[in-house]
Design a protein that fits this description.
The complex is a heterodimer of chains A (about 130) and B (about 270).
Chain A lengths: L11 H10 L11 H5 L10 H10 L9 H4 L5 H5 L6 H13 L13 H5 L4 H11 L2
Chain B lengths: L1 E5 L9 H13 L3 E4 L18 H15 L4 E4 L2 H13 L3 H8 L11 E4 H5 L3 H7 L7 E4 L21 H8 L3 E2 L13 H4 L1 H17 L4 E4 L2 H17 L8 E3 H10 L12
Parallel strand pairs in B: 1-2, 1-3, 3-4, 5-6, 5-7, 7-8
Helix pairs in contact in B: 1-11, 2-3, 9-10
The chains are: A mainly alpha (about 130), B alpha/beta (about 270).
Chain lengths: ~130, ~270
Amino acid sequence: MSYYHIEKEENELLARVEEISGEIVTLCEQCGICTTSCPMAEEMDFTPAAIMHAVKIGDRAVLDSKAIWICASCFTCTVRCPRGIDLAKVTEALRQIHLRKNKDYINLEEVKEEELEEDLPPIAVVSALRKFTG
Amino acid sequence: MEVAYYPGCTLKTHAKEFEKAAMEAYKAIGIELKELDKWYCCGTVYSLAKDNIMYKVASIRNILNAQKEGFDYLVVLCSMCYNTLKQAQEFIKDESNLARIKAFMDEEEYKGIEVLHGLELLKDKMEEIKKTVKKPLGKKYAAYYGCTLLRPKSIAIDSYEKPAIMENLIEALGGIAVEWPLKNECCGSYNIITNREAVVERVYHIIENARRNGAEAIVTSCPLCYFNLKECQKDVKKHYPGFEEMPLYYYTELMNEAFDGKFDKGENNKES
């Protein structure tokens, strides 16, 4: 099956991601500069370029990836994308698809007490809650 | 010169030493940081979803408070707060965005406030800083910018790929600023909550890179970078035997140290 046989109208994932992010994902030409720039790429199951490709072809497996939760929104891919795509907004949209269905990525009740005792700075906790809960 | 100052949650709790040093250091070069009478948490991260207006309201209220208190500029020291507030300021530069926000707020008319990071205030003050130095630093420092001072491009306080503002400060304080490639790389940020091991790896690479390029200490303005780089060094040691800890400083601490020579270097970097 050729990936590009999926028409844009049939690609619900692409439509939803473009709606939430405001970005035109189909501009991506898979040059891979995002992946080579990404400091977290080694930790990911879908590299940034693979995320873009998956959205473009409507591969919903990307929604179950670890990668969308590992992205730290550092904007390195965003400032380097030669097509001007704000990839940080694309991964945010993928997270939002979950969070808007009340599917949080972290459950505060499961946070261990010793982790809180570590005296985490408020900006760490608040930013994680903003990114990982709806 | 008196400027409005937005502290944010972390400078009142975890990074008190950053604020305390800032108050003294800026005063020494004639800048009074006047804390806003009223401020709220900025939200820490700027929402990247096109339709999420609610997450932007707190930041915009803070900007309006600065206006209400009669200021044209709002100075922020925490890098994450700076990023969030500055992106919010950029957002309401657009008339149609401002109109959408107004539907949620009763505050007065917005006239335009410029959000600035504390480092930006120092750009034109280098000569004054040099004159204020009593005890030149001498050591070699790696300026660590991380992400939130430089990206996205619209909010960058300096060149987003090749910043020099902190290096210039280090040199003005009589220190040696080393050149190193990872100065604007992400430390892993809030992954510290969900994916600590990944942050530990980042911290190892960042610190070793600074060391290989000659640094004896790392300087930052982000309390989350500071926390990650400092706390994770203990974990790094477990993974990489032989790893030696590297001290961390907020840039305001270095200013104080050079200005009065009394700053206790050991106080913030005690081994625990």
